[in-house]
Specification:
The protein is about 50% helix and about 10% strand. α3 crosses α6. The protein is elongated.
Length: about 250
């Protein structure tokens, strides 16, 4: 019996992954002007859904930016090149997510419709994001949906980011449901892997950034992929009915 829904944030409720990609691209070009923003954005797709540290280190290695980032460490009073890279891009990113107009242009309307339906139906809701608390709460507040969640967990609440299942284990505990009683909504392969590793069924809502990676995942009876997003709400209703059926319980 499904008793709670757990949502990812970036790429699931709002396309902040696009904004993150743009901010990393601008920072990378600042470090190496011979790069183009387009090639960095394309490279970012391989790291969607991972922690800030993993994304930054991955892009530094991919585009050989370590030396340039090291030269900026003193400026930002940090100990690692990836931290300097993050600080460079955060100035751009925080301006983006502080602009209601920009965020509203990047809403995921069908996922937000699902969130509204879940609350109307009385499901407890959780949010599990690899964003840091300040950025996640800023997005939720600008969109006026923070109060829609009973429990919110960010990368700062766990030791291991997705695809490790730790954040889903934490959310299930805080929502006071068993793992079989929760349903996750995710857009990236790392998020889907985290949910399935926690033995939580998952609905995938891939974006242009994540579609290829999501469709490379092995088939799983606990996973449904929704490429046609207008079908999301009905797909979730059908999947919940299937998961709640006596036949499913018997299996």
């Amino acid at each position: 019996m499904i008793k709670a829904l757990i949502f990812d944030l970036d790429g699931t409720l709002v396309q902040t992954e696009v904004l993150k990609a743009q901010s990393y691209a601008k920072a990378a070009v600042e470090l190496n002007p011979s790069l183009t923003e387009e090639e960095v954005i394309e490279g970012f797709k391989d790291f969607v859904g991972l922690s800030r540290k993993e994304v930054a280190k991955g892009l530094l290695n991919r585009f050989d930016l370590g030396e340039a980032a090291s030269a900026r460490m003193k400026e930002f009073d940090v100990a690692k090149p990836w931290q300097a890279f993050v600080d460079i891009r955060m100035e751009t990113y925080f301006k983006m997510i502080s602009d209601p107009g920009i965020l509203k242009e990047h809403l995921c309307p069908y996922s937000l419709e699902l969130l509204k339906w879940a609350k109307q139906e009385g499901y407890p809701t959780g949010l599990g994001t690899m964003s840091h608390r300040r950025e996640a709460y800023r997005v939720l507040e600008v969109l006026n949906i923070r109060s829609e969640f009973d429990v919110i967990s960010t990368i700062q609440d766990v030791e291991h980011g997705k695809p490790d299942p730790e954040i889903y284990n934490l959310l299930a505990e805080e929502l006071r449901v068993s793992h079989s009683e929760a349903l996750a909504i995710e857009d990236s392969s790392s998020g889907i892997k985290a949910a399935l590793a926690a033995h939580i069924s998952c609905i995938a809502v891939p974006s242009d950034f994540t579609r290829v990676g999501v469709h490379k995942l092995p088939a799983d009876d606990s996973l449904r992929i929704v490429d046609n997003l207008p079908d999301l709400l009905e797909t979730v209703k059908d999947f919940i009915s299937e998961l709640n059926s006596p036949e499913e319980k018997a299996n």
